[in-house]
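Worked example

This section walks through a single chain of length 122. The input is the sequence exactly as stored; nothing has been trimmed or padded.
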Amino acid sequence: MPLVGTSSSGQYSCATSSHYTLRDLRAKRKGQPVFVLGHLLHRKGQEAAFEAFNDRIALVKFSDGGVAGYDPIELLLPTEIDDKGVAYFEIRSCRACEILFPLTLDEADSDQEPEQCQECRT
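Given that input, the structure is written out below as tokens.
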């Protein structure tokens, strides 16, 4: 299985103003926590960890050992990762287009959270 576009060094990534999904990351690190939007209804809304790429599909592993492939745009980044490595996700629905998006740490800590995804805000 090819590991194209992955990195084994560095830290796991959180949502930023320019990085909301796994697709947005230039280098994807194995173990990167993600929130699954995807096409499998029984897995939708679950947390998983990025494993590798296989023909442009991101393979993710769930806590029960299950593995599934997703388009990287279907995998949201966490809002925060604490000092013990636990990922926290603050996921919201855009009031304009109804797509789910993660909040950045600054957005989650602000008095007024954004009501629209980054695409609709621009």
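What to look for: The two ends are 38 Å apart (CA to CA).
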